[in-house]
Amino acid sequence: MKICISSKGGSTTSVLDPRFGRAAYFILVDSDTMKTEVIENSAIASGGGAGIASGQLVVDKGVEVVITGNVGPNATKVLEASNVAVFRGVPATIEENIEKYQKGLLEKISTAVPAHFGMGSMEA
Prior knowledge:
Layout: E1 2-7, E2 25-30, E3 36-40, H1 50-60, E4 65-68, H2 73-81, E5 85-88, H3 94-102, E6 107-108
Parallel strand pairs: 1-4, 4-5
Antiparallel strand pairs: 1-2, 2-3, 5-6
Helix pairs in contact: 1-2
């Protein structure tokens, strides 16, 4: 299974970015092999539509699970339409969030935050 974690940095020792659409990076992890892929989020500086672009990016990569802090309404629509499950990560490293997910310790996110929730703020 391919998992995507929003990240403030480009490695598995980086800390979770609580924003999805405007996360600095996405760390993709194959839960079977633990192989990783790092993607810089080009939507981070967009004036609008960051959630849609970010959501479509991870869907196009074949992601089945997203771990992040918050997801806006537009990203939620894209992810739900592709049956991507979204879980609330914790303020810890990407590695720690993967471990918590695998142990069933992360909460499933079922409600989007308001539109533009993460804009203009480094913390959502």
